[in-house]
Design a protein that fits this description.
Structural class: little secondary structure
Number of strands: 0
Distance between the termini: 70 Å
Shape: elongated
Helix content: under 10%
CATH topology: Pectate Lyase C-like
CATH superfamily: E3 ubiquitin-protein ligase SopA
């Protein structure tokens, strides 16, 4: 005797309606759909944007220091000159984002997808990049002193003129040439 099986469709997360919220400090904007929003120069302190959709948003020069941005979608966002120091961006999608001259000092970018991102002259000093996808990212002139690159993937990344001395760890990292760090990526002077 066969038992009927009920097929349950997969649930797609629905963005939270945030039309009643203002984008201000200490606001909980977790899960909000803010795709393409213009937040140039905004100052957000202690706000939460966990799992928010900020793809293609303009956050040029924004102050987002210490923010909760875990799992946020910031793909193709303009974060040029933004201050994201000490922010939690673990698991965030920053594919193709413009982070030119951004401050990511001591930010948690563990497991984040930064493939194809422009991090030219960005400050990543002391950043946690454990398991981050930095494939084809532009890290030219970036400062990575004290950064943790354990298991990070940098295949095809541009590290020209990057400050890599005192990188905390390269264990398990994939180098720009596709090889494994042993103990560091040897293609670049330190």
């Amino acid at each position: 005797m066969s038992v009927p099986v009920e097929v349950v469709p997969a649930v797609t997360p629905v963005a939270k309606d945030c039309s009643d919220k203002s984008i201000t400090a200490k606001e909980d904007l977790s899960g909000c759909d803010l795709q393409g929003v213009d937040l140039k120069g905004v100052i957000l302190v202690s706000a939460s944007l966990r799992d928010a959709n900020l793809s293609s948003a303009n956050l040029f020069g924004a102050f987002l220091g210490g923010m909760a941005l875990q799992g946020a979608n910031l793909s193709s966002a303009n974060l040029s000159g933004a201050d994201l120091g000490i922010s939690n961006l673990s698991g965030a999608n920053l594919t193709g984002a413009d982070l030119t001259r951004a401050n990511l000092t001591r930010a948690d970018l563990s497991g984040a997808n930064l493939s194809g991102a422009d991090l030219n002259n960005a400050s990543l000093n002391g950043a946690n990049l454990t398991g981050a996808d930095l494939n084809n990212a532009d890290l030219s002139g970036a400062h990575l002193s004290g950064a943790d690159l354990n298991n990070a993937s940098l295949n095809g990344a541009d590290l020209s003129n990057a400050r890599l001395e005192a990188v905390m760890s390269w264990v398990g990292a994939t180098c720009p040439n596709g090889g494994q760090a042993n103990p560091v990526c040897t293609d670049y002077p330190y």
